[in-house]
Amino acid sequence: MKIYVLDAFHLSGVELAEKQAEVIRWDDPRAKNWHEDAAGLMVRGKKITADDMARAKKLRVISKQGVGIDNIDLEAAKARGIAVCRTPGVNSEAVAEMALSLGLSTVRRVTEFDRMTRGGSKVQRADFLGYESWQKTVGIVGMGNIGTLVARKWRGAFDANIIGYDPYVPASRWSELPHKRAASLEEMLPQVDILTLHLPLTPESRNMIDAARLALMKPTAIVVNTSRGGIVNEAALYQAISSGKLFGAGFDVFEVEPPTSDHPLMTLPTFVGTPHAAAGTVETQMRSSMLAASQLLEALAGGQPLGQVA
Ligand SMILES: O=C(O)[C@H](O)COP(=O)(O)O
């Protein structure tokens, strides 16, 4: 039985899988021939299409490290009886911490100051004022594991006023959350100082934050995206920030990754960009890699792991 690990994983999970199966790692030249004999796959962001599945006759399980499964054609997997698992919960802390880091870096101009400081320029500090977060309003789209953790952190650290928008959370669960609930983005957006996105990329969420919705936000507000590129319209965001209708943005994810160095957003001083690194902590990579491997082995043995989605 062969398992192919197609993206770079923390070795903890790779070594766990190696105890029970032959494992071919991403940097092994044989990895490009995985379609021939893979029974199981471990992936992070690598796209697994319907065509891949049609070619991989022996494939039984795809184990994804992470929560966003937009890189895997779930319908094709279901149609072929290929199990798909993901690792919800284990990267929430890392992603939530990055969401706050991006928010704070943007409003306090941390990376902008860093560039000036490294460049040796004498900074006219009075011309570069930022915004505080204390008791500001944070709008959270997507109140799942990560969104609720982000809410707790902004509230706990900055006494922020939280407004959540998530039409998929039932009323019974909202009543357990100490946060205001917005019935629509149109209701939420004019109120927020920090908009932070924690939802999957789906046909419904693609282009959700477009020019019309950005126009509803305060000129002092920012957008933080650690979820998926494509949820915010990048051209509209560039227009809003460059014309002074929005203060800035902090993004870990982009429509096309990695973004090129001449991406328009990179020309904006109050834009902070990171390379899809929100889950990139030692603790999370160890936990996620181990969970992805153990779920793969469980599903290959005929079990139904908790993170199974197809
Ligand atoms: O889907 C997720 O949870 C994140 O995008 C994780 O992605 P990564 O494993 O590539 O860090």
TrEMBL record:
InterPro entries: D-isomer_2-hydroxyacid_DH, D-isomer_2_OHA_DH_cat_dom, D-isomer_DH_CS, D-isomer_DH_CS1, D-isomer_DH_NAD-bd, NAD(P)-bd_dom_sf. PROSITE patterns: D_2_HYDROXYACID_DH_1, D_2_HYDROXYACID_DH_3. This is D-3-phosphoglycerate dehydrogenase. Residues 4-309 form the D-isomer specific 2-hydroxyacid dehydrogenase catalytic domain. Keywords: NAD, Oxidoreductase. GO terms for cellular component: cytosol. The keyword Metal-binding does not apply. Belongs to the D-isomer specific 2-hydroxyacid dehydrogenase family. One of its GO terms (molecular function) is NAD binding. The keyword Iron-sulfur does not apply. Residues 101-278 form the D-isomer specific 2-hydroxyacid dehydrogenase NAD-binding domain.
